[in-house]
TrEMBL record:
One of its GO terms (biological process) is asparagine biosynthetic process. Residues 3-48 form the Asparagine synthetase domain. This is Asparagine synthetase domain-containing protein. InterPro entries: Asn_synthase, Rossmann-like_a/b/a_fold. It comes from Croceicoccus naphthovorans. GO terms for molecular function: asparagine synthase (glutamine-hydrolyzing) activity.
Length: 64
């Protein structure tokens, strides 16, 4: 990371991270004109386990 970016990130007050009760509020505000409404409004995000689960569902193991 570049020093100016790191300094900016460290300078953001922690209470602004969840403005309006929404996680990642600063990033959502910064990219509001680029993100679809569904992304801006969501309150949770899938993790890597959902990707793995869908891969197993698509490619079930066959009995030998």
């Amino acid at each position: 990371m570049s020093q100016p970016l790191l300094e900016f990130c460290l300078g953001v007050p922690t209470w602004t991270w969840v403005t309006g009760g929404q996680n990642r509020a600063l990033a959502r505000a910064a990219f509001a004109d680029l993100l679809p409404r569904s992304v801006l409004d969501r309150t949770s995000k899938a993790g890597p386990d959902s990707f793995i689960r869908s891969a197993f569902d698509r490619h079930p193991r066959r009995a030998s």
